[in-house]
Amino acid sequence: MRTAVAFATTTCLMLALGAPARADEAESQYRICLVHKRAGRMAQALEACDAAVRLRPSFAAAHFTRGSVLRQLSRFEPALAAFERAAELRPDDPRAAAMAGSMLMRLRRWEPAVARLREALRLDPEDATSWANLGSALRRLGRNDEAIAAMREGLEHAPEDASLLNNLGVALRRERRNEEAIPLFERAIALDGENFELRLNLAVSLRAAERWDEAIQHYARALELRAEHPAALFDLGVCYEQLGQSALAIEVYERYIRAVARRDPASAQQARDTVQRLRAQ
User: Fold this and answer.
1) 108 CB-side CA count, 13 A
2) In Å, how far are 10, 31, 56 from 20, measured between CA atoms?
3) Residues 233 and 256 sit within 8 Å (Cβ to Cβ)
4) Residue 125 gets which letter from DSSP?
5) Whole-number Cα distances in Å, 257 to 146, 216, 251
6) Which of 70, 138, 208, 219 is close enough to 147 for a disulfide, judged by CB 3.0 to 4.6 Å?
7) Long-range Cβ pairs for the range 173-179 (8 Å, 24+)
8) Cβ proximity of 215 and 207 under 8 Å
9) What is the pLDDT of residue 22?
10) Tell me: the pLDDT tens digits for 86-96?
11) Are 23 and 52 in contact (CB under 8 A)?
12) Rounded to an integer, what distance in angstroms lies between the CA atom of residue 163 and that of residue 233?
């Protein structure tokens, strides 16, 4: 009888001591995960993070970091599950809801993304990235008015966020409100002048507004940032053509033809036809 009591007592002590030991091991694996993640060793980081959450299933920070690692590995479905688990464990942490919304966007699940992003913004209305993502998700759903309203609200919280300015500009341009979009793109470029997408978006809006000379300047700068980009080349040729500068238009169209000849022969042929027409004038 004494032996049985002693065995039971020892077992209870071992179990009691085991939980902290496993917790310490979970922390250790999590730290290893962070070291690998910072070094860009995502496979090893994931292995360590997996161990951390196995050892402590309620380890919210490890679930969140696991989601970040999976996102880096372009494994968006399991990343979403990891962020959702982190949000479940810490419902007042806006980061997990924001990242879940971002993953839903990657998976093109626009309605759930909108719901998740609104939850993230309820928790942290200063999160410019979530405002930009919310606007993009609403725009994907064809709810452009809501997208514009959401991003305008976002700019009240983060007036100097280039992505938010850009996304609002794109939404306005889709409604052909180019004169409203142009100053937004200009503000974004003032914040991030080496961003190809911003330069191209400004150039496109200037072209749509028939401000040809200004558009040319920004197409040229965009092509310095990303050489021989087909859309930028073609639009630049259109601008030169509209200004009657046929020689420059021909030069740019020929660059466009070389850029697309292999992967888009039909578009290349249309550009050749344009070049022939310009030479015949």
Assistant:
1) 0
2) 16, 16, 10
3) yes
4) T
5) 40, 19, 10
6) 138
7) 173/201, 173/204, 173/205, 173/208, 174/139, 174/144, 175/144, 175/148, 176/208, 178/205, 178/206, 178/208, 178/209, 179/209
8) yes
9) 58
10) 999 999 999 99
11) no
12) 24
